[in-house]
Specification:
The protein is of the alpha/beta class. It contains 20 helices and 17 strands. It has a five-stranded parallel beta sheet with strand order 3-2-1-14-15, with helices on both faces. A four-stranded antiparallel beta sheet has the order 5-4-10-11. Strands 7-6-9-8 form a four-stranded mixed beta sheet, with no helix packed on it. The N and C termini lie far apart (109 Å).
Length: 657
C-alpha cells in the first residue's frame, strides 16, 4: 500500500476502477491471453493515470475449482501447493511484461470467503437461490460424489478413450459423465440448463479407477429466471459502449432465455457454503463448495479488500470502490470466452443482493490471437507463451507494442514473426527511434547538451505544426477513451512521424545552425518538446522506453511523471537546462531471425497442425458436397416420380365398363 495508504476514489470526481479477467492459475498464459486481458488493462490504466484520473487496477489469480483439483492430482501435490506455484509463475510473467497492477492478489483468502458468503446469504434471503435434487456420479470406493472432471472414460461421440466427464478433448463436444438415462438433473417442470451432446462409455473415477454409480444429491441454483427482468433492464441501460462481441454474446444468452444455473459442486477446494441459514441444511452442504464461476468474479472486490483493508476483515474501505456507483466507473477487460460470467452471472448476483453495487460500465473484450496461421498449443509447443518470450532476447516493450499493433479488437488477428520484425525495424527504429536519437544527439553534440533559447523565434510553420500535433493528440485521447488501443497506438506513431516531418521540413543540420542559429534553436526546442509529448503518449504502450526518453531529455528522476495534456503548447522544457546522454532506443533485428524463431516456437508441430486442420476442412467440405449431391439426386428422383404420376390417366379418363 505504501506510506500514503491505499488509492481511494475522490467523491464527486471521475474515478476509474479497472479489472482484467482473473487468469486461471493452473497453466501458463500465451500471448493471446496476455493481450486479451492484463496487458490491455495495464495500457488503459497507465493512460487513465496520465490523464490525472484516480485509477485503481485490480487483478489476481483465480485458484478454486475442479480443474485445479485435477491438475494437483496429476502433479501429485495439494491444490494449495499447485496454486502457489502457478501464482508465482503468472506474477513473474506479468512483471516481465511490465504490467503495473495496484494489486495482483489471489482468491483463496479469508476476505474472499467472507464476501462470497455474504453475497450468497443475501441471494438466499431474497429468494434467488433454489435447492434441486440432481443425479450425480458417486464413487463407491472412496465414498464421495464426483465433479464431472473427476470422471473419465470413452467419448460416446468420437470414441476418444481419455475424455473427461465435462468435455471431450478429442472432438470438443460437451459431455455428461453418465448416460442420459441416469442424468435426471432437474426437477420435472423446472427450467433446465443446456444439456451436453454425449456421455462417457465405461466411466471411471479419476482418483481410484472405480466405476461411479448414479446417486441423488442436492445442489443450489441461482435463479437467473427470476432475475432476468432486472438483468435485461440493466443491460439495455449500460451496454451502449460495450465491445460489439460482448453485446452480441450477452444478447444471445438473453435470447435463449436466462435459466437457473447450478452454483455448487462436490469438491473440497473452494469457498464453503455458509452455515446457519434458515431453511438450508448444514449437513447436506458440508462437503460442497461454490462453483468457481459463481465466486471467481467476486474475486475482484475481495482482492480489492486485500488492497484497501489489508488483514482487517472488518474493514470497509473496499466498498468505496465497489459499492459506490455514483463516483466510480468500472472497466473490465477480457477475452470473449469470459463474457457471460461477467455480463450475466456476476451482475445478476449483484442485483439479487438488492445493494448499491458498482457494476460494470465498459467492457473491452477481444477476439482470438492466432499464431502463424495456426493456434497456440502448450502441449505441442506451438507459439510463444508468457515465460518463453524472453528467450528471444527482445525487450518487453517491443513485445508490448507489437501485441498492441495486433490486438484482436473486432476480429481474430495473427501473430507473424515477419511482422514482428517489421514493427521493430520500421515503426520503432526508423520512426520513433530516429526522431529521438537525431534531436538529442544534435543537441548534445552541437549545443553543449543544453536546451536552446527557442522561445525567441517564431514562425507560422511552427504554429501549424502545433495545430497538426494537437489534432492528432485529440484523436489519440478520444480513441484511448473509447479503448481502441490499436488505433491509439497508430495515432501515437503518427504524432512521432510529425516530429520527423518537422525536422525534414526545416532541414535540421550543421548548415542550419551556422546560417540561421535562432531558427535552428527554435526547431530544436520545438522538437525536444515534441519528443516530450511523444514520451507521454507512448507511456501506456512502452513504459520503460518512455522513461528512457525522459532521461535523455534531462528530466530529473523525481520529476519523471507522465501526463497527457488536453492541449500541447510546445514550450514546457526550460531553456538552459541540460539534457541527458543520447543512447539508441532500438536496434535492428535481422530478417533471418524470423525463420529461426518460427522453427524454435513450433515449426514442425505447426506444420502438422495446419495439415490436420486442412484435412479436417477438406473432409467437412467433401461431406457437405456429398450431402448436397444426395439432396439433388433425391430431388431428381422425386421430380421423376412426380412426372411419372402425372402421365398416368386420371380416374375421369378411365373408360367405364
Amino acid at each position: 500500500m505504501g506510506s500514503t495508504g491505499p488509492i481511494l476514489p475522490e467523491p464527486g470526481k471521475r474515478n476509474i476502477l479497472i479489472t482484467s479477467a482473473l487468469p486461471y492459475v493452473n497453466n501458463t498464459p500465451h500471448l493471446g491471453n496476455i493481450i486479451g486481458s492484463v496487458l490491455s488493462a495495464d495500457c488503459f490504466a497507465r493512460f487513465s493515470r496520465s490523464r490525472g484520473l484516480r485509477t485503481l487496477y485490480v487483478c489476481g489469480s483465480d485458484e478454486y475449482g475442479t480443474a485445479t483439483e485435477t491438475k494437483a492430482l496429476s502433479e501429485g501435490v495439494s491444490p494449495a501447493e499447485l496454486c502457489a506455484k502457478y501464482h508465482a509463475i503468472h506474477k513473474e510473467i506479468y512483471d516481465w511484461f511490465r504490467i503495473d497492477f495496484d494489486i495482483f492478489g489471489r482468491t483463496p483468502t479469508a476476505q474472499h470467503t467472507a464476501i462470497v458468503q455474504d453475497i450468497f446469504t443475501r441471494l438466499w434471503e431474497n429468494g434467488f437461490i433454489e435447492e434441486r435434487e440432481t443425479i450425480q456420479p458417486y464413487c463407491p470406493k472412496h465414498e464421495s460424489f464426483l465433479a464431472d472432471r473427476f470422471v473419465e472414460g470413452e467419448c460416446s461421440i468420437c470414441h476418444y478413450m481419455d475424455a473427461r466427464g465435462d468435455q471431450c478433448d478429442g472432438c470438443g463436444n460437451l459431455l455428461d459423465p453418465l448416460e442420459p438415462e441416469a442424468q435426471a438433473n432437474d426437477v420435472v417442470g423446472q427450467p433446465q440448463e443446456s444439456k451436453a451432446t454425449g456421455w462417457l462409455i465405461n466411466p471411471k473415477c479419476k482418483v481410484d479407477g472405480a466405476t461411479p454409480v448414479p446417486r441423488p444429491t442436492k445442489h443450489l441454483f441461482l435463479r437467473l429466471d427470476l432475475l432476468k427482468d432486472d438483468v435485461i433492464s440493466w443491460f439495455h441501460e449500460t451496454s451502449e459502449l460495450w465491445s460489439a462481441n460482448c453485446i452480441a454474446i450477452t444478447q444471445s444468452w438473453i435470447d435463449r432465455g436466462l435459466q437457473a444455473r447450478g452454483i455448487t459442486r462436490d469438491l473440497k477446494w473452494g469457498v464453503p457454503i455458509p452455515t446457519g441459514l434458515v431453511g438450508l441444511s448444514d449437513e447436506e452442504y458440508r462437503n460442497k463448495v461454490f462453483y468457481v464461476w459463481f465466486d471467481a468474479c467476486i474475486g475482484y472486490p475481495s482482492i480489492t479488500k486485500n488492497y484497501t483493508d489489508g488483514d482487517n476483515l472488518e474493514g470497509t474501505l473496499w466498498t468505496k470502490w465497489w459499492k459506490n456507483p455514483k463516483d466510480v466507473t468500472l472497466y473490465q477487460f477480457m477475452g470473449k470466452d469470459n463474457v457471460p460470467f461477467h455480463s450475466i452471472i456476476f451482475p445478476a448476483s449483484q442485483l439479487g443482493t438488492k445493494e448499491e453495487w458498482t457494476k460494470v460500465s465498459r467492457f473491452s473484450t477481444t477476439e482470438y490471437l492466432n499464431y502463424e496461421g495456426g493456434k497456440f498449443s502448450k502441449s505441442r509447443g506451438i507459439g510463444v507463451f508468457g515465460n518463453s518470450a524472453r528467450l528471444t532476447g527482445i525487450d518487453p516493450d517491443v513485445w508490448r507494442v507489437f501485441l498492441f499493433s495486433r490486438r484482436p479488437e473486432t476480429s481474430d488477428s495473427e501473430f507473424k514473426w515477419g511482422e514482428f520484425i517489421d514493427v521493430n525495424n520500421n515503426d520503432l527504429l526508423k520512426n520513433l527511434g530516429n526522431l529521438v536519437n537525431r534531436v538529442v544527439k544534435f543537441t548534445h553534440a552541437k549545443l553543449d547538451a543544453t536546451i536552446p533559447d527557442y522561445r525567441k523565434y517564431t514562425n507560422p510553420s511552427f504554429e501549424q505544426h502545433k495545430a497538426d500535433t494537437n489534432a492528432l493528440l485529440q484523436n489519440y485521447i478520444s480513441t484511448m477513451e473509447a479503448i481502441k488501443l490499436r488505433q491509439g497506438l497508430s495515432t501515437m506513431f503518427n504524432i512521432s512521424a510529425l516530429g520527423n516531418k518537422l525536422l525534414q521540413d526545416n532541414k535540421l543540420s550543421n548548415q542550419l545552425l551556422s546560417e540561421e542559429p535562432e531558427r535552428c534553436a527554435g526547431v530544436v526546442g520545438l522538437a525536444l518538446n515534441h519528443i516530450l509529448l511523444v514520451a507521454n503518449v507512448l507511456y501506456p504502450f512502452m513504459p520503460e522506453t518512455a522513461r528512457k526518453i525522459l532521461e535523455q531529455l534531462g528530466v530529473p528522476e523525481e520529476k519523471r511523471k507522465f501526463s497527457i495534456p488536453d492541449v500541447w503548447t510546445g514550450n514546457t522544457l526550460e531553456p538552459g537546462e541540460k539534457i541527458g546522454t543520447p543512447t539508441l532506443l532500438f536496434s535492428q533485428i535481422p530478417a533471418a531471425r524470423a525463420e529461426e524463431w518460427r522453427e524454435a516456437f513450433g515449426g514442425d508441430e505447426l506444420k502438422k497442425q495446419k495439415a490436420a486442420e486442412a484435412e479436417k476442412a477438406a473432409a467437412k467440405k467433401a461431406a457437405k458436397q456429398k450431402k448436397k449431391e444426395q439432396k439433388n439426386a433425391q430431388k431428381a428422383v422425386d421430380a421423376a416420380a412426380a412426372a411419372s404420376t402425372s402421365d398416368l390417366p386420371s380416374s375421369a379418363d378411365t373408360p367405364s365398363n
